Amino acid sequence: MDIHVSNINKSFDQHPVIKDVTFTIPSGEICCLLGPSGSGKTTLIRLMIGAITAEEGTIHYGDVQIPNLSVLKNVGLMPQNEALYDDLSGEANLYFFGGLYDIGKRDLKERIEEVLAIVDLTEHRKKLVKNFSGGMKKRLSLAAAILHSPKILFLDEPTVGIDPVLRRSIWEQFRMIKNSGTTIIVSTHVMDEVTECDQAALIYNGRLIDYNTVPHLLEKTENGRVEELFLMASTQAKGGEDS
Ligand SMILES: Nc1ncnc2c1ncn2[C@@H]1O[C@H](COP(=O)(O)OP(=O)(O)OP(=O)(O)O)[C@@H](O)[C@H]1O
């Protein structure tokens, strides 16, 4: 199911935050929303899952216009700040989130085993979340987001505050999830992470300044560094109309 974002405009308090954004994310790929802090990545994710509505433009999953409750069961979200229960164990958190989906008791037990193994938390399953490290919380939050085997998975800055070694292992997990057929949309402001993705949407000041496959984007730069594309965009914005 491709995701079509067409001419989206969104303002908060009359202040435009997303400005005429149009792009299509091909099914089964990893697409990153790359941009500096405050550029509009979280807002775009909230629009794409239907949590907020745009003033102008449309978003479709395949032929289905968003927001649409019936497609929500196919969507997973790992929010920027983990929404976990500190006083419950890792496993108990997953039982809680599993209860929100339509998964039978026995299937849920099996699926919890599976996702704990995917995020490498099986041996810590009984530990209370308040005693988890930051990285373990991120991994548990990822486990909760994929519990219902979503076809589309949104990850909002999933590797913030994560050390490089753990970041690598988390990206391996994303690739495993992609290989199982899930489309992944991941926001980041870490330029290096773009090379892990198939497509990248470069967001700057609420505008989509470029969208292409990662090799195509890197070809446009002199040194193969994504930062250059943002530097070019900021120079253009200073000379142009952008607010
Ligand atoms: N609910 C809201 N009400 C008012 N302004 C908002 C709201 N949500 C976001 N904004 C503003 O919209 C702009 C984009 O914010 P957004 O969180 O989408 O950026 P971001 O790229 O995800 O940033 P970060 O990387 O820091 O998370 C910011 O100026 C922010 O202050």
> What would CATH call the architecture?
3-Layer(aba) Sandwich
> What is the average of the pLDDT values?
90
Strand order of the largest sheet: 6-7-8-3-9-10
| Largest sheet data | 6 strands, mixed
CATH topology: Rossmann fold
Low-confidence stretches: none
* CATH homologous superfamily (4th level) name: P-loop containing nucleotide triphosphate hydrolases
Shape: globular
Give a list of the ligands: adenosine-5'-triphosphate
Distance between the termini: 34 Å
Overall structural class, as computed from helix and strand content, comes to alpha/beta
Strand content: 25-35%
Helix content, binned percent: 25-40%
GO molecular function, one term: ATP hydrolysis activity
Domain ABC transporter: 3-230
Organism: Jeotgalibacillus campisalis
Protein name: ABC transporter family protein
Report on this model:
The structure is a single chain. The protein is of the alpha/beta class and 243 residues long. It has a single domain, classed as P-loop containing nucleotide triphosphate hydrolases (Rossmann fold). Helices cover 33% and strands 26% of the residues. α2 crosses α3 (105-118) and α3 crosses α4 (134-146). Bound molecules: adenosine-5'-triphosphate. Adenosine-5'-triphosphate (ATP) binds next to α1. Adenosine-5'-triphosphate binds at residues 12-13, 17, 35, 37-43, 189.
List keywords for this structure.
single chain; 243 residues; alpha/beta; Rossmann fold; 6-stranded mixed sheet; 4-stranded antiparallel sheet; 26% strand; binds adenosine-5'-triphosphate; ABC_transporter-like_ATP-bd; AAA+_ATPase; ABC_transporter-like_CS
